[in-house]
Amino acid sequence: MRIESKDRFETLRAQARESNASRMQQVLVCCGTGCLAWGSKKVAEAFASEIAKRSVDATVDLFVKSTGCHGFCERGPLVALQPSGILYTKVKPNRVEEIVETTLIGGEVIQNLLYKEPVSGERIAQYDEIPFYKNQVRVAMRNIGRIDPTSILDAIAEGAYSGLARALFEMTPDEVLDEVEISGQRGRGGAGFATARKWRSCKAAPGDRRFVLCNGDEGDPGAFKDRSIMEGDPHSVIEGIIIGAYALGAHEGWIYVRDEYPLAVVNLGIAIAEARKYGLLGQNIMGSGFDFDIKISRGGGAFVCGESSALMRSLEGKTGEPRAKYVHSTEKGLFDLPTVLNNVETWAGIGAIIDRGGEWFASMGTERSKGTKAFSLVGKVKNTGLIELPMGTTLRHIIYDIGGGILNDRPFKAVQTGGPSGGCVPAELLDLPVDFEELTKAGSMMGSGGMIVMDDRTCMVDVSRFFLAFLEEESCGKCTPCREGLHQMVQIYDRLIAGDGVEGDIELIERLAAGMQLGSLCELGKSAPNPVLSTLRYFRSEYEAHIRDKACPAGICRELTAYEIIEEGCDGCHVCFKACPVDAIEGVVKELHIIHQDACISCGACFDVCPTNTIRTFPKIELKKAEVV
Amino acid sequence: MPTLKINGRRVTVDADATILDAVRAAGVEVPTLCHFDGLEPWGGCRLCVVDMSQAGWEDDWFKVVTACNHPVDEGMTVVTDSERIIETRRVVLDLLLARCPEAPLIQELARDYGIEETSYTPNPEPDDCILCGLCTRVCDHIGVSAISSADRGWGREIAPPFHKPPPDCIGCLACAEICPTDCIPYETSNIRRTIWGKEFEMLRDPKTGEAVITKEQAEHFAERSGVPITYFETSDTSKRRQMASTFQKLQVVK
């Protein structure tokens, strides 16, 4: 079973390909975390038992595969059929028999399981024709959703470890470095530091022992691309790390993954064990004479452990707190030895870069940001999910063509990129090409590739408070500006959303933000003011309205907002009556309903459910004024 | 030996010096709170921030770094009193004053930077702990690690494990002595010592009867140093007496 030469690897790959091709039909059931939550495991089981039931019938040659995330989490559970390329969405176990009978045996498409294009209402049968997929270019995510992540042979059949074979047998370590440099790949964890430069600086550090690490501590609210890669194609990550280790002359590696990603931990563990069994990890890899092995280290759930120095501290078994990086970790990292730490997505791209060449990767993207980038598209967008696109794609293309536009066709207000350290990009910048430089110029950042789309029912003060509160919770508390600054920032925002803001609060926020940016020890604190500064830059008037007019223009902040039913539009459908959690709405069916202001808690439940859009918000202060009159 | 420019003044220091060493060598004062010369620099309080430019950087390009843990380099330029540095320290002190409005040390430092009252919401339950980490670091340094920081962010605190009397504590009082705001309470008498809720019996000098050290501390030090435990039990008075009698017995050789 051990692969002891390049020839043996190629033979094994050819056999695996043949065995996959010999299966007439494949049913790919998405078993990523999103679809599992939709109940996809039951769907996969139903397929397995249904097919087993029919296996007496010689005409059925079916194979069910539980794959990683297909990305289109909004429509789960997803079932893709090969070779027909049909994608069924929102598949429930009770439809499985029908799918086997009608489509797999009968060759007919079941219309009402197909994806319905929201604009035209047209049903689309082919996976590749759905705009969500059609517009993507997948590199790091090349095999996710196509392979069974627990089967190394399935991954090898789809090209896994081909880059490694090439690196080990056709290239010197320096040639590998050159190839990565030609690709122009920059780190996918947020800061965008050139991969080759990082590797070179580590290689130049003195000493024989060095480490390669993989950062799988993705923790930004709304981001899940690293999770999906580790769950759906762990071999791409492992392959990248081995190639990096070969280039650097490292023999030990760790994957640091959050323990809140149980499926990622399990799938990585299976993949590493299988890779060892096949001689792709351990002594004398593929018979090349190169030794390298990987261990998994499970993080305890501190957001700050995604920061490189804190991650290394945590790996050393100490408290996960950042330390000054005046000496780079490429020189003195883990256990004070030269260390390269790259993000999951960065590693996942390396195998493809070596296999297909740096030029190929560099042919995609923009001048300074090469290749493709994975994003988690979430929020008030019709098609949420996981996507990968060439750098430089515009926000408009991402939100409208791939995301299908804003939910309920409400106006687009802003998109939050880069997680809590990023910022909000407003509607006027919809044509911004997304790459490292452009996002930074707009006051945001690439970060972990989270994209939270927001509609007009979003208060920017409230959103900033959300991210600040998240960071306040996650700050390690080692340095003063971050620990105290975030706490005080939240206090100020609490004041603003409660209508207790005073003149001078904006200036106080700005001074504190500047102090935190300059004074904080690590990037968590330094970048924590980004959501604040970017919303102040583009939505300053909203802040002013909260302070001066005691009004929330978006009608979100409860203390400042009241709701009422517009008489002309209400058809008495009674939906709001049922939705109100505090019985503040009075009315009988088919008659005008009213909201009792003294009982209303401004939760907005009625607003969200009203089918005729006849509930409006207005500043609560007008109620008080009316009382005075 | 690298030469640096500190606020325009040239100073030459050892290659393994920090910016803080160089700043002091130049006779310039930079405030610190979490720094102690005998311990590894930590960079937590952020009060010692300075503007720094390396040789070869563009003229007007400076980076804000902490002096306590940044290594020096030939041709480095350091400015300790630029506007943004003063402002950053002001923000730090303003924030610390909100956490510890009653700590005299913080009040004094804040006043030096023109702050009489905090701009922020004062801590509703104030104590004087500024979370500088000196106590836990000195405890680690002694090889005991009886206390540590617990929780994170604003909720961070210094505590023994599970807030119970720390089993590893040797009652040496190093934490209380090093605390810049004197906020670690303890009691010590001729018989007994109490710190972190743990009680210690004092070992007394057999000759003078003075309380010298806790039994746990004497044992720990004897074990670490290889020096007999009797040495640690001897009081300073006894040691002086012994020395005096030794000197008396000495004969001057002409």
Describe the structure.
Chain A has a 5-stranded mixed beta sheet with strand order 12-11-15-13-14. A 4-stranded mixed beta sheet of chain A has the order 2-1-3-4, covered by helices on one side. Chain A has a 4-stranded parallel beta sheet with strand order 9-8-7-10, sandwiched between helices. The N and C termini of chain A lie far apart (87 Å). Chain A is globular. Chain A has 629 residues and is of the alpha/beta class. In chain A, helix 12 (262-277) links the parallel strand 8 (252-258) and strand 9 (293-299). Chain A folds into 5 domains: 20-127, 3-Layer(aba) Sandwich (Glutaredoxin); 152-362, NADH-ubiquinone oxidoreductase 51kDa subunit (Rossmann fold); 372-455, Ubiquitin-like (UB roll) (Roll); 460-549, Up-down Bundle (de novo design (two linked rop proteins)), CATH 1.20.1440; 558-628, Alpha-Beta Plaits, CATH 3.30.70.20. Chain B has helices spanning 19-25, 83-99, 104-112, 134-142, 174-178, 215-225, 229-233, 236-249; strands at residues 3-6, 9-12, 49-53, 63-66, 77-79, 148-150, 157-159, 186-188, 192-195, 198-204, 211-214. Chain B has 2 domains: 3-81, Ubiquitin-like (UB roll), CATH 3.10.20.740; 134-245, no CATH class. The mean pLDDT of chain B is 95. A 5-stranded mixed beta sheet of chain B has the order 2-1-5-3-4, sandwiched between helices. The longest helix of chain B is centred in the middle third of the chain and has 17 residues, at 83-99. The interface between A and B is medium-sized, with 34 and 36 residues.
